[in-house]
Amino acid sequence: MPQTPTQTEYEAVIGLEIHVQLRTQSKLFCPDSTRFGDEPNVNTCPVCLGYPGALPVLNKKAVEYAVMLGLALNCEIAELSKFDRKHYFYPDLPKAYQISQYNMPVCTNGYMELSTGTRVRINRAHMEEDAGKLVHAGAEGLAGSDYSLVDLNRAGTPLLEIVSEPDIKSAAEAREYMTNMRNIVRYLGVCDGNMEEGSMRCDVNISVRPKGQTEFGTKTEIKNMNSTRAIEQAAEYEIARQVQILESGGSITQASRLWNEATSETMLMRVKEGEADYRYFPEPDLRPLHISREWIEALKRQLPELPEERRARYISELDFSTHDASILVDVKELGDFFDAARPHCPHYKTLVNWLTGEITAYLKTEKKSMADTRLTPNALAELVELQENNTISSTTAKKLLAELLEKGGSPAKIVEERDMAQISDVGELKKMVEDVIANNPKQAQQFRDGKEQVLGFFVGQIMRATQGSANPELVNQLLRELI
Ligand SMILES: [Zn+2]
């Protein structure tokens, strides 16, 4: 007799560890530059090279950035925290320990609300230094390479590691959490949020369990994702993989797995080491970190508008759709552009349409950012006004926008110089409409016989004759009167 298929429903339990590279000019404990892309090993000194006797000095700006990010994530900021040594051996770590924060991190007990209503609790955010980078010659990774070189430019760059509780319930929520985090660091200006270049990195911890069960299942950790989309795909894949193993009677091995973008699979990387192996102890070369209430309050007052505040403002005050608001929140420079243009433009809904429609499409195809274009907020506001008061047709507006993006300039001046204003002169248009009707008697008869769609043909003729500058509403009206 065939067995009844199992009816077990599973739920995912997901937590994220995000490394945010703090955008300071110099490293966490020495004055070397943090610039990306320099010649290997030029930004190094005895401190970050781990020479004996070289002493670390804490970067104040990095502390400020860590506190700002903690505040934006609703964390408690510790007035007293400390640094610890985390020991492990790897060629990109000259000291053979990393200075991190173990049991007294700078930020604790925060949270982030997701659009699904899920509140993701943030366990902690601690400061630490980054390691260097290995460059493998002759292969993609270490396996199969002829030799490896060490670049220590990145060694000692400040990081904030943000550890969430396992409150995330789906792959889509994991992506939203990461997207929001990236928005927050960009709004604060504490990190460029560029996942491709590694200034934000993320490990996703995933387990599954039968719905209703309270104990956690065995988790795996996925590494190596360089976009928010990859996070969602990797989580989806890993949830399905684990459910399949459990369904077929197997068990999950606790391990780190790598996301392979090319094959869309996770692959075993290494079975995880325990915390005890790191032999943490307090860093003797750094004093405990004191952050005064006054300093925290001063930083709180400096916080800019955060993504969720902007979203709320656009939706409740300006009546944006959730879709439009999301575009202007997620792409900060578009929102900034809107905010700059709006005071010069009463028709702000049209302004939003241009930004979320034509302009977004242009930036995508041209792979540009707003800063790469020549369009200014004033010019866009002017363009919208010319369109709204019927000085130019929407066709002309589109043409003009393309030119403004590439070359800049004032739309009002261009319209005047090139005589691009739309023809709203009834007398002039009437003559044209009469001509077109007279030249196309067959189509005119079809319209009189009730074939409405022929009107489009006539409108097209007029628009062609005027190179798109006739006022289409007026043309329509005249055609109906004269045909
Ligand atoms: Zn250094």
Could you explain the architecture of this structure?
It is a single chain. With about 475 residues, the protein is of the alpha+beta class. The protein has three domains: about 290 residues, no CATH class; about 110 residues, no CATH class; about 55 residues, Arc Repressor Mutant, subunit A. Helices cover about 40% and strands about 20% of the residues. The strands form four sheets. It has a nine-stranded mixed beta sheet, covered by helices on one side. The chain has a three-stranded antiparallel beta sheet with strand order 5-4-15, with no helix packed on it. Strands 3-16 form a two-stranded antiparallel sheet. A hairpin with a 4-residue loop joins strand 13 and strand 14. Bound molecules: zinc ion. The site of zinc ion has 8 residues, from loops.
